[in-house]
Write a structure and sequence with these properties.
Blueprint: E1 3-9, E2 14-17, E3 24-27, H1 48-63, E4 70-76, H2 82-93, E5 100-105, E6 116-122, E7 126-133, E8 136-144, H3 150-156, H4 162-166, E9 171-174, E10 188-190, H5 192-200
Parallel strand pairs: 1-4, 4-5, 6-9, 9-10
Antiparallel strand pairs: 1-2, 2-3, 6-7, 7-8
């Protein structure tokens, strides 16, 4: 049976669930310098062998040396591009720390109680508004995190997709990165602990 290792790519590091608890511990690479508007893991490409080796050793320390059982269940920021998703997949798969990788955006992981909802989050470069239907991202709008207009986002949340215009859906504000104070009135606020509790329960049965 595969062993799922839930992981979260935050704005500043990679959080990995501890083997025997629901707590998450950070994987950081020494010497990584963050640049504005660029996710930190882009720097991994400059030292990819070193970063992959360190990640593999990190996983071995936490989960033991039977790496062929591991499936990395990676939760990515909502504005992760298709190319970034490919890089993330290849980075972890080629690190040798797991046999497979499964990815899901933060917005897709916010609710198990509703099949349709709107999610709002903020990454290191964007505010991201999404309409989720049966775990699929049906619509998405990005706003630069330095110039966003709160009123506009509130209005866009009402008409992001035709489904929303004709039937109301819940709105979840993902405050995982503790940067969503401007949006608390928009919907249900998901705290960092609530979010991590949801991710800690993820199990990849088949990949």
């Amino acid at each position: 049976m595969p062993r799922t290792i839930p992981m979260i790519i935050s704005n500043h590091n990679i959080l990995v669930k501890e083997k025997d608890s629901d707590k998450f511990i950070p994987f950081d690479m020494p010497g990584i310098e963050e640049e504005e508007n660029i996710p930190f893991y882009h720097e991994f490409a400059k030292r990819i062998s070193e970063c992959q080796y360190n990640f593999k050793e990190f996983i071995k320390k936490q989960y033991g040396s039977k790496l062929s059982r591991n499936v990395c269940a990676i939760i990515t920021p909502d504005d992760t591009s298709a190319l970034e998703s490919i890089f993330i997949n290849e980075f972890f798969l080629n690190s040798g720390a797991c046999k497979a990788v499964a990815q899901m955006t933060m917005g897709q992981a916010l609710s198990k109680n509703h099949s349709k909802y709107v999610s709002l989050s903020m990454s290191s470069r964007n505010v991201i508004l999404q309409y989720i239907n049966d775990n699929e991202v049906m619509a998405r709008k990005l706003y630069d995190y330095t110039t966003y207009d709160v009123k506009r986002i509130f209005e866009d949340a009402k008409r992001l997709h035709i489904d929303i215009e004709y039937s109301g859906v819940p709105v979840y504000v993902n405050n995982f990165n503790m940067n969503m104070d401007d949006f608390f009135e928009l919907g249900t606020v998901i705290s960092p602990k609530e979010f991590m509790d949801k991710i800690a329960a993820i199990d990849v049965e088949k990949v």
